[in-house]
Amino acid sequence: MGAAESTLELHIEGDPIPEPDETLIVSFSETNGTVIAETLITILNDDSELPEPEPEPEPEPEPEPEPEPEPEPEPEPEPEPEPEPEPEPEPEPEPEPEPEPEPEP
Question: Which of 1, 23, 38, 94 lies 20 to 30 Å (CA to CA) from residue 32?
Fold first, then answer.
């Protein structure tokens, strides 16, 4: 006959999916199939829902590029003033005609 006592280690991988408790039967048997011992094992549900993932933050809007200042308009050139017309020369006065001398008698 074999050992009267032995240890069986079961590694259970958990997951985040909530589900009911699960049970299984572990049977110890001879190589010919004769069951030596059986035990009922219950895996308790200790899963918890994963927290909701944090929402992705809204991306920061890219700042509007500052508009380039409009070039200042060049001032319109002031029109050159029309030259003032030269004053017309005053006509020289005509000399008064000298009276012709009267002939002597």
Answer: 23
